[in-house]
User: Fold this.
Amino acid sequence: MNKDSKKPPDPTFEKALERLEEIVARLEQGEEGLDRAVGLFEEGMKLFRHCERRLKEARGKIEKLVEGAEGAHAEPMAPEELGGE
Amino acid sequence: MNARLPSRQEQPYIFSVRQLTQYLRGLIERDAALRDVRVRGEISNCRCFDSGHIYFTLKDEASQLDCVLFREEAALQDFVPRQGLKVVARGRLTIYERRGQYQLVVSELKADGIGALWLAFEALKKKLDAEGLFRPDRKRPLPRFLERVALVTSTDGAVLHDFVTISRARWPALSILVVPALVTGEAAAPGIVRALALAQAQPGVQAIVLARGGGSLEELWAFNTEAVARAIAGCGVPVVSAIGHETDYTISDFVADVRAPTPTAAAMLLAPDRAQVMSQVATWRQRASRALSRRLAMAERELSLLSSRRVIAQPLTLLNEAQQGLDDLAASAKQAIGALLQARADSAAAVHGRLTALNPASILARGYAIVERMPDRVLVRSVTQFAQGDEADIKLHDGRASCRITHTRKEEHEQG
Assistant:
């Protein structure tokens, strides 16, 4: 898991999926020149790998907003804080 | 006296029904306390007649009282009485002689308790609706894959647990920022307004879920206040309302960008099913591969078609001029068609095929030019063909240009 706060300039997941869908549609139409088709395919494969990695690895944070003298800040939430039965 | 038989006069007095009813009516109507009385109860059996008079029964756990609201008074009331409404009715008591029933002639109706809440609910709903706050075109769509949402809710109770558990199971990538807020009682409305303001100010928050478990109308009341409604309407990011049970509708639900019937439903709405998305991505991957294979096969067919046809059409002289661009074209064709054509590129026959497929027009389109010396229109293949001051005509793919040679420089290594 990549815990760096500075993320690489990844496309957001939604944008990546949108682009993927577009690439698949354009490849299937078969109207692109060969150069372009190969380029699209390579771009698509990169996006597939990106999306699959995100899907498998990405873990969001569960935090709680705590108000203090300095204003509000987010603190990680422990599972036992979630309550429930 | 004692000895006398009882006379007719001493017989007990016998009333007619009418007399008795009138007697009682007189008693009741003369009683100052009953001339202006207030009664609390719930309206039931409410009937409106064409005459404009409204008849209903006020009841509580133990008793009931017939009431009539005459047309003139009915027109003065803030609301129309209806089944189930808790009210305080004010009026005078009388007896309706034809039926011998006592009844309250109502002059004023005021909503009471939950009845008042309902009326406030309806008044606010009407007001905000008139302002356009519920208009569908105000509703902002939710991003399909959210990265961070704020959850405004109480930190005790099952809502928080359920929301986090369900969204985690479906879409673990979703970050959730819990913004604690009281959701019941007097302090709830200002608390929610504040929490909404805090939530939308946090970095990366793409949507806010305003959630609360089920409860009575009173318990859910904060979500029916104007302050909360306006805070939702003014929110900088889309707001999902997830309040109470499926059948509970609050003003907040009408103003929110999306209404989830329950907090659990909100979690399912915001957190897509990861397994489903994964299989979608896998399907796309397959489709892309298949599409590219088809495209490559098509290119191969095109190429063989070209090599069999164009060769006849092209004058050989043009081939000579094209020779210079051959290596370049071969390289780019190889690159584009990739491994598929590798074998073909290696064979002499394929080289010949590609060579004959060279179309001067397409070579020109790649940026090459044909240069002719003027005015004799001799094709120029070497700088040595030029003398300073010569005129030349350059043919590009989309036209010609005339130029004059200012100087020439021969580069020895560029032989052939």
Q: What stands out?
A: Confidence is low (pLDDT under 50) at residues 1-9 of chain A. Chain A touches chain B at residues 12-14, 17, 20-21, 23-24, 27-28, 30, 32, 34-35, 37-38, 41, 44-45, 48, 51-52, 54-55, 58-65, 67, 72, 74, 77, 81-85 (CB under 8 Å). The two ends of chain A are 30 Å apart (CA to CA).
